[in-house]
Amino acid sequence: MVANEKSSKISGFYKLSIEQRIEIVKKFSDISDEDISNLKKPIDLSLADTMIENVIGTFEIPIGIAMNFTINGEDKLIPMATEESSVVAAASNAAKIARIHGGFKTEISDPLMIGQIQILGVKDIPKAASAIIEKKQEILKVANAQDKILVGLGGGAKDIEVRILETSNQEMIVVHLIVDVRDAMGANAVNTMVEALAPIMEELTDGYIRLKILSNLADKRIAKAKAVFDKEQMGGEKNIDAFLESYSLASIDPYRAATHNKGIMNGIDAVIVATGNDFRAIEAGAHAYAARKGQYSSLTKYSKDESGNLVGEIELPVAVGIVGGAGSIHPKAKFCKKILNIQSAKQLSEIIASVGLAQNFAAVFALSTVGIQKGHMSLHARNIAMMAGANKDELDIVAEKMVKEGNVRMDRAKEILESMK
Fold this sequence. Notes:
This protein has helices spanning 18-29, 33-40, 45-51, 87-98, 125-134, 136-144, 148-152, 187-205, 237-252, 254-274, 279-290, 331-340, 345-368, 373-387, 392-405, 410-420; strands spanning 63-71, 74-81, 105-108, 112-120, 156-166, 171-180, 208-215, 222-229, 300-304, 310-317.
């Protein structure tokens, strides 16, 4: 195996021992021996007890490294925390095809989050809405007084929006506070601000406040990524046409789009978990964004360029942070952020969008050509062989035989093991 230390294109990585893989990642990312020690041991129970309530233990999932990623001209090794087989390999293979034409290019908006304040019982809604708008600067001043550190970093409350909504039995005003949260996910800062604004809103509107909380539809905090996937590496025009035909269903049918987007989130969630961010918030925002035009649809789109290569694009809200939250105290999350070598939430968003596009490309390419089961089955066969009692030396032999037969079952694995004895 030959590898440039700072290149994410490392051939034969999967064939190496765990220790050899760790050594490569250590050199690539300037990881310390202490970081490696933390990687190898479970999270301390006393630390876990400070993170959530009623702790009785910890639950580990594997951390793998996706290879071959070039993002905005910089090579990256991507740590992914997932229990689902083939996710890491699929992302790596997609990135390998994309890097032929320069890898992934991204576009990230400012880190603007939305805090909602629901106002009910307002007798004169137009008058109340006007009163809020007139007092905009005063409202922003009060909001920013809640987090002077954030304001000092260039963030803070930047704007308000007033919406008038109606249910079957009442009208309401919903005020959106727009907050630049810088390198945080932003939930705590935003929630503190909207709670502080509640008395002012009641006074201005002569109504009462019910909800005051962050929205996870972070549609002002958008991440976009784009890549060109090489025609020859995809097997030519026929395969690209098959890919586009497969993609077209996700663009018009929510039943297909749900599974299509789940494939995107396979990759995104793995990076979110690895960096200690809130994957549930990202999931909620992504799926809501996919339905923003009135019908749930694909978060990606694909087309051909002039040379017949496949062009893939993704667009979705990405509300992540590199400061605060579990990612700042969980030793393995801190380790994974070191591998990524990121100094801002924007950089993490670039990586997340790129991985989401890579994961989606890999899934649709497999579906439109060999079928999704081929890649899954070889890894599934290893799991079956292990459950049947295969040791490390027997594992690949049993799995390979079951896949070759097209007969991946527990009873067959046991039969093969018995014959080997």
